[in-house]
Write a structure and sequence with these properties.
It is built from 16 helices and 13 strands. It has 499 residues and is an alpha/beta fold. Strands 3-10-9-8-7-4-5-6 form an eight-stranded mixed β-sheet, with helices on both faces. A three-stranded antiparallel β-sheet has the order 11-13-12. Helix 9 links the parallel strand 7 and strand 8. Helix 6 packs across helix 7, helix 6 crosses helix 12 and helix 14 runs parallel beside helix 16. The N terminus is likely disordered. The structure holds pyridoxal-5'-phosphate.
Amino acid sequence: MDLVCDSANSMQKIPTNSSSPGKAELPLDLTGPHITAGASAAHRLYQALCEMIVSGLVKPGEPLPPSRTLAKQTGFRRNAVVTAYERLIADGFADATVGSGTFVAARIPARATEPKKPKIVVEAPKQGAFSLGCTHIDERAVQRFRAFVGRRMRAFGSEHLHYGDPRGSRELRAAIADHLLSARGLRCDPDQIMLTSGTLHALRIVLSAILKPNDQVWCEDPGYPAARNTIAHCGYRAVPVPVDQHGMRVAKGRTAGPNARAAYVTPSHQFPLGVQMSMPRRLELLDWAKQVGAFVLEDDYDSEFRYDGAPLMSLAGIDHLQRVIYMGTFAKTLFPGLRIGYCALPERLIGDVTAARAALDRFPGTLMEGAVADMLNSGAFAANLKRVRKLYREARDALAETLEARSDGALSVPVPSQGLHLVARFDPSVELSVAAEAKRAAGAEGWLLADTYSRARPLPGFVLGFSGHAVPQLVASAERLARESRAALRVKGKSARRA
Ligand SMILES: Cc1ncc(COP(=O)(O)O)c(C=O)c1O
C-alpha cells in the first residue's frame, strides 16, 4: 500500500513522554510492498504503522508504545519515531492525549473502512477423462510445427510491423481454401475466407454484420451451449428449435422464430446428439433461408474426424456459399491454444463482415499464421490427422464398449461415426437426477446431457469427450461411471417403490 499523506504541515506535537505502556512489541512489517524503498526512516516507519493499523493488526483505541520503546524495537532514532507518530496523528490514524500517550484512532480512515472486495474465482476448464475440448497432437506433428515456427521466427520481418488485412494473411487463407475443397467439397476463393480466433469469434463477427440487436437466431435444441451463450451475450435472441433424427426441425423453427434472419446449426454431426442432418432437411433449411433472406451459420467443428464412411458434403458446399456461412476451427484438428479458426463467406457478405471484423478487433495476430500455413501446405497437417484419427477411434471404441458392458443395460451408448465425443443415455423414463447423481458420485467430467437442452424435454444421460485422453484412464473412468449409474438407478428405484 502506498498511502499518500499531504497533511504533513498540519501535524500536531505529540506527547513523547507518555506514561502509557502500549504494546510491548508492535507487529510491524518494515519490508513489505507497502514500504517505499529508499524513503526516509520516518516515512518507512509511518508506512509500516499505517499498514499495521489499516489491516487491523492493532484495534481502534489501542495504545501505541512510547516513542522511546518503539525506537528500541525498530532500531530507528527516536526523532524518526516522533515524526512518524506526528504524521499518523495528522492523517487521522492515531490520537494523542498529553499525559496518556498515543492511541490508534477510534475511526480509521482508508482501507480498514473500505468494503471488502469480493473474491473473484475463475475456474479453468477441467482436463480429466471425459472433459470435452482436449486434443492429442502427434509427436511428429509437434516437431514439424516447432520447426515451422522456428523458421518463421528467424525470418521475422516487416510483414508483422504494420496493421494487416482484417481477414488475416492471404497465405493461410489460400491454404485453408485448398483444405476445404479437398476435405469438405467446398469451393471458395481465399478472398472469401476470414481467419478468426475460433468458432465463437467467427459467430460473433458474422452475426454483428448481418443482424440488428435483439434479432432472433434459430439454435438447435439440444445444442452447443457455448454458441447459445455467445448469441445471447451479443444481444440477440437464441430461439430453441427442436432436433430429431434428421437434424433441426425447420418447420418448428418457422413457428418458434418466424422473424429470425439467422440459424446456427451443426449439420454434419449435431452437437451433442451426433445425428447427421438429412438431405431433405438440408434443402428445407436452405429454402427457408432463401425465402426470408436469412443466413445459415454452419459450425463444422469435427468433420475431419470421420471414422466410418465418407462425410456428407458440407451444407455450404451444397449451397455454393450463397446463404450459408461456413465456420471451421483448428481447435480440434491441431490444438485449442492456437486460437485460430476461420469462416468462409458468401461473396455478398465479404464487405460487411470485413468491416465488422475491423471494428471489433482490427485483424488477427500474424505470428502463427505462417507456421499453420506451412503445416497445411507441407502435408504435416493431413498426416497428423490420419494418425490422430486412429487414436481417437480406439478411444471411442474403448469408452463405448466399457460403458455398455459395465452398465448392465443402464446406459445405451450409440457409437458415433464422427467426432470427439459420445452420448451415453439412460432410458428416457429415468429421472434427470439419476444422471446427475451418478456423475457426481463417479467424480466424472464431461457434461450432463440435460445441460445442453433449452426448451425441449431433456433426456437423462451424459456427453463424454474421448479425444486427448489416454485409453486406460478413459476405461477406468468409464467403469466408475457405469458402476455409479447402476447404483443411482437402484437407489431411485427403491425410493420410487417406497413412495
Ligand atoms: C460444437 C462446437 N463448435 C465449435 C467448437 C470449437 O470452438 P472454438 O473454435 O471457438 O474453440 C467446439 C469445441 O468444443 C464445439 O464443441
